[in-house]
Amino acid sequence: MWVGIPPVCDLSLLNYCEQRGVVVAKNMLEYMVGFPLDPALLDPDHPLESISRAMLINPVNPTYHMSLEYIVDMARKYRVDGAISVVKRTCGLVPGMQKLVKDALLREGIPSVTFDLDGVDEREFNAGAAQATLDAFVDTLLARKAGAAPQKEVR
Hints:
Layout: E1 2-3, H1 29-33, H2 47-57, H3 64-77, E2 83-87, H4 94-107, E3 112-116, H5 127-147
Parallel strand pairs: 1-2, 2-3
C-alpha cells in the first residue's frame, strides 16, 4: 500500500516493486483527488465562507482520525503486507500524520517504511534513491513472509 502523495512526476515508481513480485495494491491518489467539492455546500451569498467550510469537511482535507480509519480499513480489505509511507518535503503537516499512520498500521501487524520523496518536482525527484529504499523494504517484507508459518487451508 502506498500512503502519501505518489510520485506524480514518475508514476512508474508505483510499479517498481513488481519486478520483485511485490505489488502496490492500493495507493492514495484516488483518495486525494477522487472527491469533488459538493455544490450543495456552497452559498452564493457567502461564497468564500462557504468554500472554506466545504473544504474543511471535504475528504481531500480530512481530519487525521478520518484518514487513519480509511488507511487501516483499506489495509485490512486489501490484506496488505506492508505500507510505503512517503513524506513530501514541502508539506509540513504530513510527517506528523505519517507517524500516526505508521503506528496505526503497526498495531495491525503491518510494517511500513517512511521516507522523503518529492515526487511532484522533477528537479527534486531522485529515482535511484527511492528505488534503493523500496528495494530494502521489499527485502524486509520478503524475509518476513519467508519466515512466517505456513497458513492452514480453511475448508
